[in-house]
Amino acid sequence: MKVVRTVAEDLRTPWGLAPLPDGDLLVSSRDEGTITRIDGRTGRKTEVGSVPGVAPAGEGGLMGLALSPSYASDHMVYAYFTTDSDNRIARMLYDEKRPAGEQLGAPDTVFKGIPKGTNHNGGRIAFGPDKMLYVGTGETYATELAQDKKSTGGKILRLTPEGEPAPGNPFGSPVHTYGHRNVQGLAWDSRQRLFASEFGQDTWDELNHIKPGDNYGWPDAEGTSDDAKYHDPITQWHTDEASPSGIAYAEGSIWMAGLRGQRLWRVPLRGTEASAEPQAFLKGEYGRLRTVVSAGGDKLWLVTSETDGRGSPGDGDDRILELKVS
User: Fold this and answer.
1) Where is the composition biased (Basic and acidic residues) (predicted)?
2) Is 144 helix (H, G, I), strand (E, B) or coil?
3) Going by C-beta distance under 8 Å and a sequence separation of 6 or more, which residues neighbour residue 315?
4) What is the pLDDT along the chain (326 residues), one digit of tens a residue?
5) Rg from Cα positions in the chain
6) What does the alpha-carbon distance between residue 280 and residue 297 come to, in Å, rounded to a whole number?
7) What is the number of other CB atoms lying within 10 angstroms of the CB of residue 193?
8) Please, are residues 48 and 36 in contact by the beta-carbon 8 Å criterion?
9) Distance CA 192, CA 55 (A)
10) Beta-carbon count within 10 A of 118 CB
11) Which H or E run contains 74?
């Protein structure tokens, strides 16, 4: 793995990243509530617009971004964000022909009522190979929510693009899996299998293979458990080595960005199991790492997170890096 180049610098609390069809990037600012377009070649930044209603505080704000599966025709951008009352998902028309800063249409809320808190707000969204919207949520320190299948906190949700429970969901509700503490990484492998990263409390962070309807244990289990009713992680890390946010799949491995761990983990896969011990890259070189997204083939985009209030930002922070992996 090597860093090919720095794509952009001087970003403020970057969180979500959505590659556009032409190679440019949309990036959200958690604390400023704005979306910025990054020229994929020059790194030039153009503010697209602000998302109304964002109420940043603690780990909440404007977080995950995803393009509509029909983006080529509808130009819709989906965003996960915290308001004064909840976490929610809205979609907005992105009109590149309008003046900079005014290119986002009014938000159309497709799903609301996800519990909010100072911390553990989840925030990752991604459209899967089935064109359904997958959502990682947190239990907001109310640990009992994770095991409550009627709550959307501490879950992975699966929705239609309009925000309805997706056909085939295991409980006839938005809930896809439960028993999660705080999910911020979602990615599919080449065989359309879903994986997710999860923050532990004090002991074990996790990388999980996601199976519809399964219980991932929190708060009764953190990491591997002896209880067969809980789905064990593929692998686990001490929290000071990982604290994982985004994940991506490339070249037969899951790549996982570590915040507290300040490193990028590679987990080689054989099916839904790790085929070798995880490998760490970039340890301490760029500080906290928030988001990693496939750029196609053997390339990844990596977003740092030194300006999120828990890092030690230096000149140029935060950054988007282009990586070449193998």
Assistant:
1) 316-326
2) helix
3) none
4) 999 999 999 999 999 999 999 999 999 999 999 999 999 999 999 999 999 999 999 999 999 999 999 999 999 999 999 999 999 999 999 999 999 999 999 999 999 999 999 999 999 999 999 999 999 999 999 999 999 999 999 999 999 999 999 999 999 999 999 999 999 999 999 999 999 999 999 999 999 999 999 999 999 999 999 999 999 999 999 999 999 999 999 999 999 999 999 999 999 999 999 999 999 999 999 999 999 999 999 999 999 999 999 999 999 999 999 999 98
5) 18
6) 20
7) 16
8) yes
9) 35
10) 11
11) helix 71-74
Asked if residues 268 and 274 have their Cβ atoms less than 8 Å apart, the reply is yes
Among the listed residues 66, 24, 42, 11, the one whose alpha carbon sits nearest the alpha carbon of residue 318: 11
Domains, the chain: 2-324 (2.120.10.30)
β-pair type (34-38, 25-29): antiparallel
Instruction: Please return the burial class of 21, using the count of CB atoms within 10 Å of its CB with bins 0-12, 13-18 and 19+.
Output: exposed
Residue 107 φ then ψ, to 5°: -70, 135
User: In terms of pTM, does the model score above 0.90?
Assistant: yes
Tokens of 4: 């090919």
Q: Please tell me the distance from the alpha carbon of residue 312 to that of residue 298, in angstroms, as a whole number.
A: 30
Token representation of residue 3: 């860093």
The partner residues of 270 in beta bridges, in order of sequence, read: 273
Distance (Å, whole) CA 29 – CA 94: 17
Which of 150, 157, 123 has its CA nearest to residue 138?
A: 123
Given phi > 0 = left and psi -120 to 50 = alpha, else beta, which region is 166? beta
Token pair belonging to 278 = 């995880």
